[in-house]
Amino acid sequence: QVQVVESGGGLVQAGGSLRLSCAASGSIWAIHAMGWYRQAPGEQRALVAGISSRGSTNYADSVKGRFTISRDNTKNTVYLQMNSLKPEDTAVYYCNADVTTRNWRRTNYWGQGTQVTVSS
Predict the structure, then answer these.
(1) Measured torsion, CA atoms of residues 79, 72, 27, 53, in degrees rounded to the nearest 10
(2) What is the pLDDT of residue 8?
(3) What pLDDT score was predicted for residue 69?
(4) Alpha-carbon torsion angle 77, 111, 37, 50, nearest 10
(5) What is the pLDDT of residues 43-92, one digit of tens each?
(6) N or C: which end of the chain has fewer CB within 10 A?
């Protein structure tokens, strides 16, 4: 089994910063792409940022220039540095990991989500 656990959410004023972390653990042979998604009330879950195993990144247009995704492959961890936060960034943020397990099964795993609230 594989576990994906996020941390780092919270309440911040507009213009502030937060850093989210997500660690994968368990029966992992390899982690391919990792990503951060978010879901606001009444909306669908949407990609915020993604990073390949080699470090290639992509971002939603709404966060380009403000958010930075990175990963530490030695720790099976992905980070999301969020700067210049806006009230519209308020959402539950979910981590996703594309994993090949040690029994050669490739599956997407999701974390439980972490709340980010940006006050105006």
Answers:
(1) 90
(2) 96
(3) 98
(4) 30
(5) 999 999 999 999 999 999 999 999 999 999 999 999 999 999 999 999 99
(6) N
Alpha-carbon gap, residue 71 to 77, rounded angstroms: 6
Q: In three state form, how does the secondary structure of the chain look? A: CEEEEEECCEEEECCCCEEEEEEEEECEEEEEEEEEEEECCCCCCEEEEEECCCCCEEECHHHCCCEEEEEECCCCEEEEEECCCCHHHCEEEEEEEEEEECCCCEEEEECCCEEEEEEC
For tokens 């997500």, the residue is: 22
Amino acid at 112: Q
The residue behind tokens 């992509």 is: 58
What letter represents residue 44's amino acid? Q
